[in-house]
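> Could you send the RNA polymerase sigma-70 factor (ECF subfamily) prediction when you get a chance?

Sure thing. Input:
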Amino acid sequence: MSDAAESITRVHRAEWARVVAALTRRFGDLDIAEEAAAEAFAAAVERWPAEGVPPNPGGWLTTTASRKAIDRIRRENKRDDKHKEARMVYDDDPPEPVGAIDDDRLRLIFTCCHPALAPEARVALTLRLVAGLTVPEIARAFLVQEPAMGQRITRAKAKIKAARIPYRVPSAEDLPARVSGVLAVLYLVFNEGYLATGPGTDPVRPGLTAEAIRLARLIRALLPDDGEAAGLLALMLLTEARRTARVSAGGELVTLAEQDRGSWDAALIAEGHRLVRERLAAAAAGTPPGRYQILAAINAVHTSVRDARDTDWSQILALYDQLVRLDRSPIVALNRAVAVAELDGPEVALAAVDRLQDRLAGYHAFHAIRADLLRRLGDGHRSRAAYDKAIELAGNTAEVAYLTRRRDQLG
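Output:
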């Protein structure tokens, strides 16, 4: 890949949401903003290899995209219903700050996560407009066909326009009711960066995790007393701290037990642990923890020891027991089985995993965990079959490399 192409890829990850958000604020139309941003990046692909990367790539893209949007609005200005948009083009007055924090991308995510939209539409739209994922990538994450996902995103944008959903951070009294949906979307954005689903993408996408953490910090600042906002931020920090140790130089996933813990980011771990301790103190005072706080506490246990052999699995299992009462999803039950294997052995854990077969047959991690348990029980034939299925379903190249090696070690 050429230097210009690498720069465009890097800038796309860093600037896509900023450009879309800036255009949405100026022109008040998500379709115009997204299409103009895409046209600006296409222009960069065409011009930067010959002209060189500009000193301020984000500013170049925003200016170019604004011109593309103005051209489109002028073309459509013949229609009466475009007069308002046309006037907006020439309105150079800076917008008045709206909401507790004046951040375009935060406004954009609250717009995408408006309760008038269906939950799956909120997630898809945020992954597209805020995280910059392609429609095929989002379709893979949702396990649906690409045309269906494209229609879902189109309908969501049309609903925002028809319902006149405002581009703003909600007022203080509306924030608590709106924040849970935003946290759920940020968690999915982070997860896509932490372990990308697309076969044509890098195994880890630090631009996505960094943006999710940035937005989570803003939500935390908006709602300093919200336990789940603090819990999600802590969960992200403790997970991000391990990022550089998670993929080997050869591009293979490195499991938590095998990671070089000396390479973990000590500052992120310390900040995550501090947030977890704050929430534990709140729980002791009578405020029960939510899902993200419990997940953060589980990660705090994992990151509190220098050797994986010293992990307190009884504490982790107790936390999963607490989480199961809040979240009955089969994925939580699957992860709980991993802790059961460490305490009660692989046979007991396998029985728990097999009970999830009907609900998780299409989930690669189900087969990967099952393969490892069968390997530990000495059942090489069934373990190999489970590894084959996990490899077939896995979309991440680092996971595929790891699972292939483990399968081949069976002989």
